[in-house]
Reticulon
Amino acid sequence: MQYNEVIVAKEEPGADWVGLLYWRDLKQTGLMFSSILLLLFSLTQFSVVSVIAYLALAALSATISFRVYKSVLQAVQKTDEGHPFKSYLEVEISLSHDQMQRYAENAQYYMNSTLKELRRLFLVQDLVDSLKFAVLMWLLTYVGALFNGLTLLIMAVVSMFSMPVVYEKYQAQIDQYLGLVRTQVNSVVGKIQEKIPGAKRKAE
């Protein structure tokens, strides 16, 4: 299955995120991308508590200053415009029961799927798949030795906001190379399945 097909399949519940990842709105995506990177880079220098405290102080400084400024301006001009954040204070931000139930059901589905897959891999339901998982974990030990969690998270964020655009632009070339790699991998896996006792060949 190609990358864009996966995106289309999930576009209905998260269409806004799809637009962000594909840079449909440069201003909105740029703001989101820079904010996430700034937060992650801040976490590399300060603790989580410090970052949260600094962000809260910065937000409070901005809102309090604006509130005082508008109050002074209204007093000087002798106007009664009310609270400057009145429109935002009246916005309903609570989640409905249906929304909470839908999110809970989605979380339950992904958790159950993950647990079933881990059980299948660790209890060696399919020997080849378990060996693939073991190789992946072995490779991750080297990745973990080279990068810490935050560095990997930063790389993942950069990839999330760059790879969809690159794939969209060079889809034909990427699909061609991915097809070659997939063919080679399937060939190697097939040979391993033939030589390992108990390894079953999956129907294609």
